[in-house]
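Tokens in:
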């Protein structure tokens, strides 16, 4: 059975890693969609799709890498067209992992199973919070996998976030 998990991963943090592990425990193959892949770098999307892909691949082990394939999912202004666009990008899947009510609604209309992902420390683990901590020189590296930390340091994320 194949599954789909879409996220922005701005940046990839421990909550995302937990979501990946949860989804992988339910399926044989996982299609991982990097949302907002067509958006320019700006304050709420400070990392490109390619950079986010590197964060993820540097943060997971080989057994996970063998079970996932990463796809770039662009944003569209129309939610129905967005779902149709995903069909042209991602191979067939049986289940969607999402905590987004709109995604749940859209896929349930298509008779695709939607499974909620348990949140890990949601009050601490959000991309917005991690970005704010980086920007304000506070402790953040305990909220992300080591591979992501290396990528963020290499990108000089602190200065990028301050400029944006």
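Residues out:
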């Amino acid at each position: 059975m194949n599954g789909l998990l879409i996220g922005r991963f701005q940046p990839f943090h421990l909550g995302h890693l937990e979501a990946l592990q949860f989804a992988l425990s339910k399926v044989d193959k996982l299609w991982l969609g990097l949302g907002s892949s067509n958006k320019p770098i700006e304050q709420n999307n400070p990392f490109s799709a390619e950079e986010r892909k590197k964060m993820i691949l540097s943060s997971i082990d080989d057994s996970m890498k063998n079970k996932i394939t990463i796809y770039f999912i662009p944003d569209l202004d129309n939610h129905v067209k967005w779902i149709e666009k995903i069909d042209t990008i991602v191979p067939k899947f049986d289940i969607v992992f999402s905590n987004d009510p709109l995604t749940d609604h859209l896929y349930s209309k298509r008779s695709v199973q939607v499974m909620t992902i348990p949140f890990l420390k949601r009050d601490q683990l959000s991309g917005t919070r991690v970005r704010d901590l980086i920007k304000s020189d506070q402790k953040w590296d305990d909220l992300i996998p080591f591979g992501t930390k290396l990528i963020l340091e290499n990108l000089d994320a602190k200065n990028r976030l301050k400029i944006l």
